What we know:
Blueprint: H1 3-12, H2 33-36, H3 44-50, E1 68-72, E2 79-84, H4 87-97, E3 112-116, E4 126-131, H5 147-172, H6 179-194, H7 199-206, H8 219-222, H9 228-254, H10 259-267, H11 271-275
Parallel strand pairs: 2-4
Antiparallel strand pairs: 1-2, 3-4
Amino acid sequence: xxxxxxxxxxxxxxxxxxxxxxxxxxxxxxxxxxxxxxxxxxxxxxxxxxxxxxxxxxxxxxxxxxxxxxxxxxxxxxxxxxxxxxxxxxxxxxxxxxxxxxxxxxxxxxxxxxxxxxxxxxxxxxxxxxxxxxxxxxxxxxxxxxxxxxxxxxxxxxxxxxxxxxxxxxxxxxxxxxxxxxxxxxxxxxxxxxxxxxxxxxxxxxxxxxxxxxxxxxxxxxxxxxxxxxxxxxxxxxxxxxxxxxxxxxxxxxxxxxxxxxxxxxxxxxxxxxxxxxxxx
Length: 281
């Protein structure tokens, strides 16, 4: 096997080592979470400035009165959630929490982060940042929903998605911008919003088409560090395993497996192992 193929296979072998025994769940909140309790329901920018000493940069906020702070419950403990209502404000908030005057450009399809803050006064705090927008920049009519219905579903997906990333971090020791992690997180997002996991929906969210090794959507963001000529192999591998993931999740839901059983099953099995006898093309 040549080194190039070996590297590609090693990439697809990523998964998490699931402990034989897990601690009592949910885990206790991380210590900094209590500091954010005083911010819930308050005017966000004033609170970030007064309670946490964050600098006020000259951002041109679009909907600053619609910024909000809440909390979400996860298997890894509670997390603060900051919500914005425009992609521009989402980028401004990302910059503010990380102590930067300049925004970083991310695709319009990316409207959520589980971030570890870098601003000096809140260094190392883990926060979920969400923007209120159609999930993966997919139009409502693609899912047979009205725009308002789709926005509500989108927020449910995002919150469950980011919570799942935090859960793999606290329970299994890691979270990555990797196709496996995105399948795991989107699975819980779909379950939260729709009560099931549908492979056609997932291909829409990723920007994939069945039987094709190209991508015109969000998944391309996560493989940006992979050599361009190798990305088609990853898209093909993801396409193949999604059908199997749909069957597995639906089976587990039908027998009423709890969240931790589903999480450990999905995160503990790599895309490579799920491919089975399918050729790596």
